[in-house]
What we know:
The complex is a heterodimer.
Chain A: H1 19-35, H2 39-55, H3 59-64, H4 66-83, E1 89-92, E2 106-108, H5 109-135, H6 138-147, H7 152-163, H8 165-180, H9 189-195, H10 197-221, H11 239-261
Antiparallel strand pairs in A: 1-2
Helix pairs in contact in A: 1-5, 1-11, 2-5, 4-5, 6-7, 8-10
Chain B: E1 2-10, E2 19-26, E3 31-35, H1 42-49, H2 52-56, E4 60-67, E5 70-71, H3 78-81, E6 85-88, H4 101-110, H5 116-129, H6 145-157, E7 163-167, H7 175-190, E8 194-198, H8 202-205, E9 211-216, E10 219-224, H9 226-229, H10 233-239, E11 267-276, E12 279-289, E13 294-298, H11 305-309, E14 320-325, E15 328-329, H12 335-338, E16 342-345, H13 358-369, H14 374-384, H15 400-413, E17 418-422, H16 430-445, E18 449-453, H17 457-463, E19 466-471, E20 474-480, H18 481-486
Parallel strand pairs in B: 3-8, 3-9, 6-7, 7-8, 13-18, 13-19, 16-17, 17-18
Antiparallel strand pairs in B: 1-2, 1-4, 4-5, 9-10, 11-12, 11-14, 14-15, 19-20
Amino acid sequence: MAEILQYVHKDGFFHRLTPFTKILFIVVAAVMCVIATGIPFLLVMVAVLLLVAYISHLHRKLIQQLRLVLVMSVVFVVITVLTMPNGTTLGTLIPQGVPVIGGSIPVTDGAIVIGLVLALRFMVLIFAFQLFLISTQPRDLVHALDRLHMPVDYILMFIIALRFIPTLQIEGQRIHEAQLARGYNPGTGLLGKVRSVQPIVVPLVSNALLRSTVLGLTIDMRGYRTGTRTRVRERRFCTGDYILMGCLAIAAAGFTGIIFFAPGLVF
Amino acid sequence: MIELSEVSYTYPHAVQEALHRLSLVLEKGRCIMVTGPSGAGKTTLCLAACGILSHEYGGKKAGIVTINGKNVADYTGLSDIARTIGIVFDDAEAQMIFTTVEEEILSALEYRGLSPDEIERRLAAIMEVTYLSTLKDRSPHNLSGGQKQRVALAATIALGNDVLILDEPTAELDEHATRRIVSILANLRQQGKTLLIVEHKYDHFREIVDTLVVMEHGTIAAIGAPDEVLKDERIKKIVIPDFSGIRNGRSLTVQVAPAGTAAVPAIDIRHLSYSYGDVPALHDVTISIGAGEFVAIIGENGSGKTTLVRQFNRLLTPTTGDVIVNGRNTRDCTIAELARDVGLVFQNPDHMFFADTVRDEIVFGLVNLGIDNKDAIIDRALEEAGLLHTKTLYPRWLSRGERQRLAIACVVAMQPNIIVLDEPTTGLDGDEARLVMEILKKHQQKGHTVVVITHNRDIARYCADRIITMDEGCVVSDTRAQEQADG
């Protein structure tokens, strides 16, 4: 089973960075991709992210999510075609020959471009966030957010939400199998998914609630919420941090310059 | 160190008391083992002893709990109590917050006010004594049940508390993993730690137990030195499962062909191999199980037992080889079709319950298979499981033992001729475990083929006709039970 958004233990370039640098990386990438509307520029951003992932030996993990990203991209394009007709009409979704409704739902070039821009922005955000999560140990994140004076309850809530994704995946699979073994055949497709909700979601949620009680008690009994932490093995700024921060500064400055002097490159 | 005096407790919305005027003293350096039927109040006792009931739970409370002479209510909160007491719950997965083993233990140490050098020294020592050094970079979902339990224990030991409370720390573990946990606890006891252990496996823990407590109906039914307590035959049956006579009590109402001689075997496995991706799990397994046989499959965690039985109803399809069930190759059948022939009861009954009543839970399987005359079938299945009185209750309100029997009833009601059970006595006391095995024996006597996966060698020895032992995905022995008992 593919592990979604889970820390991968490696010793790559991105792993050695402090969470601060990685958070800055996400912020710069997010701001740039939200401002930019040019498809070539966004494609370059996606390529840069994949290059960083390759250098950090994490490209395989990013590519594992490609199916989800592509499905979402198609959804974005379809939604914009349906809801934001704009520019030249290239054709219609319903052929002219169909009686009464023939020729409706125009497919416009403007809508396709907007859909592609949304899809590429989504790709940049997902890849950047995933790079951050799979290369950052929750402990390092706790230390970083603690230094930013974020309340420990919120930090724990965030890391636990991520940590239990595979646990719930595995539990859901077991429950599904238990119901199949009782002759349950919800069918395939969307209707099958809807039918299988009660026999699978009810035990999954009930078990998760029980587990959350134990988890909460464990957090208290281990003293995570006392707030008096000894700083040990904290990640320090390394050469990689300074290199990436320098690159981010140059990218941000270059991006600002392009907006003013050559806007055609990003818009 | 801890004293409970006349403690009573009723959970919010519950009618019955979970604890009833219970008094117990846990002295420094002693090891108390608490056992008893499910629903007797053992976990509630743990929660009371470490102040969780007082600080985190509503409900009706009476009596006094003191830790080191101070009333638990006078502590500022659980973090305050946690300086003295550490607790390990039975659900190891829920106690793993971080993403690697070392991170989990290191994070626990960071909040104890120790110097960085002391943290590093203690981390290395704990990894060593809990046999986790080679697993330090593993993530929780890549650990076995026994490994997870050791991590939960290590993270709690790391806190350096004087008192440790453990709620069924070995419930789902095989003998090897259980022995490792016991040896860790024996080491802690030698260091002078005070231990309160809720367990069902007295045989494994007898070496380290000073006082044995047997609970029933929320109160203490027996307490004292183990030898004294076990002189009472009734109590002994609760503490130590006695499966003797179950196999010999066989009085067949249906003529069953001797093993291997049936014209069509119930399950015929031919050169079965199976891999999870690149990881081999079964290798060239060939077994024939005759109709009406009672077979026990034993082996350590990860030996391939569960992977093997999941092939019987095609939850898994062989990578190579074939599984023939009642003359039909599983490759040619759907899971729903095979559910008529093979009923599989999973290790954790809570993976299947979703209905509002016990009756509806059984109806689910009958509707799936289109079986009529439901009420008569439901009543019979519940009666056989001793659960007729629970018909209108919410399944999750039942005790662990009752839920286990309900899981069996749900499957039996579907009238499969092969019943397969994965660790059916997990978390049950001696009486409940025997009851479950007697129910299964009765089904065998009616002509069903019964296959049980178990870590408990006594179940294999005293209940099964045949014992298949697995190791690293292979069948390493296949013997008649009597031969093995004699051997």
